[in-house]
Amino acid sequence: xxxxxxxxxxxxxxxxxxxxxxxxxxxxxxxxxxxxxxxxxxxxxxxxxxxxxxxxxxxxxxxxxxxxxxxxxxxxxxxxxxxxxxxxxxxxxxxxxxxxxxxxxxxxxxxxxxxxxxxxxxxxxxxxxxxxxxxxxxxxxxxxxxxxxxxxxxxxxxxxxxxxxxxxxxxxxxxxxxxxxxxxxxxxxxxxxxxxxxxxxxxxxxxxxxxxxxxxxxxxxxxxxxxxxxxxxxxxxxxxxxxxxxxxxxxxxxxxxxxxxxxxxxxxxxxxxxxxxxxxxxxxxxxxxxxxxxxxxxxxxxxxxxxxxxxxxxxxxxxxxxxxxxxxxxxxxxxxxxxxxxxxxxxxxxxxxxxxxxxxxxxxxxxxxxxxxxxxxxxxxxxxxxxxxxxxxxxxxxxxxxxxxxxxxxxxxxxxxxxxxxxxxxxxxxxxxxxxxxxxxxxxxxxxxxxxxxxxxxxxxxxxxxxxxxxxxxxxxxxxxxxxxxxxxxxxxxxxxxxxxxxxxxxxxxxxxxxxxxxxxxxxxxxxxxxxxxxxxxxxxxxxxxxxxxxxxxxx
Length: 556
Fold this sequence. Notes:
Layout: E1 2-10, E2 13-19, E3 24-29, H1 35-45, E4 61-69, H2 74-82, E5 91-99, E6 104-108, E7 111-112, H3 115-122, E8 126-129, H4 140-151, H5 154-179, H6 184-200, H7 205-219, H8 221-237, H9 242-254, H10 261-290, H11 295-314, H12 322-337, H13 339-385, E9 392-399, E10 411-418, E11 426-427, H14 428-431, H15 434-447, E12 456-460, H16 468-484, E13 486-490, H17 494-497, E14 502-511, E15 514-521, H18 524-535, H19 542-555
Parallel strand pairs: 3-13, 3-14, 8-12, 12-13
Antiparallel strand pairs: 1-2, 1-4, 4-5, 5-6, 6-7, 9-10, 10-11, 14-15
Helix pairs in contact: 4-13, 5-13, 6-12, 7-11, 8-10, 9-10, 13-15, 15-16, 18-19
């Protein structure tokens, strides 16, 4: 629930702090005192666009902050947790700052947030019924939402949404396959050619790598053999080879190894060097004997690699990715070749899914028809209490089994009303006046109060266009709403104001060339005086005060 409102430098408000309680709170004051400013400020914290014209001349910025108790508001708590904006478990704090330069900033629980998030969160916190908000009742979507909420049709709606989603999924799959039928043969022929072309040269990734290694070896075979033969000559075969020189040295040193240990160690190392040279030369001879300069094999390998390179370029992949590309093409070919079978299966699946959708949509429609009868009777009773004697609401639920499946079912829902017993029922827009629409909207709020999940309801002059005994009934109905919700009502009627559990008064004062607005929480005596003022008259008499006391006592 809305617990606190702080406003600074907004319109004609310098600074206001308001504490709000449970039940119904009325907001009264003379015309032009600034009652709508409070609603405008709340709207800013719920994502409304800022207007720098609302800043007073002396201020560079306006600041509004509102606090909610969300200890029992699961919807708001879950939303805040999903957005990682949760703070104090039981409190939600919204803050909005509007700069004169046009810059606007917003925070949720101390964290910066865009206006879109404020609007989303607001749907869980407050429902504002402005002076023209009742025209929303004329919209088919709003009428369907009211009926479904009253009847608690969420589980049936979920089944319909799931069934429609399955239908849409199958329909899209069919459309994709049918859309491909135009170039089906051409695509099939191309895929078969590409698969056959790649399959003719099919090789694993390691085979391609081995080919590249072999190509490098064959291409350099002649030069490599020449280099090996040169090395053999220098190391072993020539008269002055390294092997011959080392042989003479080791023989000369063998006669002197007992002179010094260093000579003995050198002699041993030279002997080992001869062995290493001998083994290395044997390896080179083995290599040169095994390697043939094979121009034909080299040509074949290079041709093979050239074909693979051309194919890789054609398919826009690297040469080593050709095996994966072949696998992709084969998969696509198999899918295309089986598309006719897949289409047949999908059409059969669609028939079954469509039959299931029809069943759940029909069940939802039957539930709606039963709910429509109950809600129509309840609202009609309330309309009569609100001064529309003989008036009635009729909710029509027309099922269209041949209509296009939607997530909301196959029903056309319309609210029709008559305002007099001798009238025909007609659409809300054609039959009801603005004041009558307002009362119908209030009746719907009262009838559906037990199913509404929004804790705070704000009514901006919901009593416009009425008076007398009807105004008192409107006030009582708003007070009834205050039992299950927190209700804030802006009103000019004493009959409505007296029904509030609490009352705030908006005052306007002129000081030093400036107009300022304040808001006071009225105590019992002050409230009696305010109700008396609203009853009228230039001078408030004892009779007027007594009338005000009686109204408050009767309401209490």
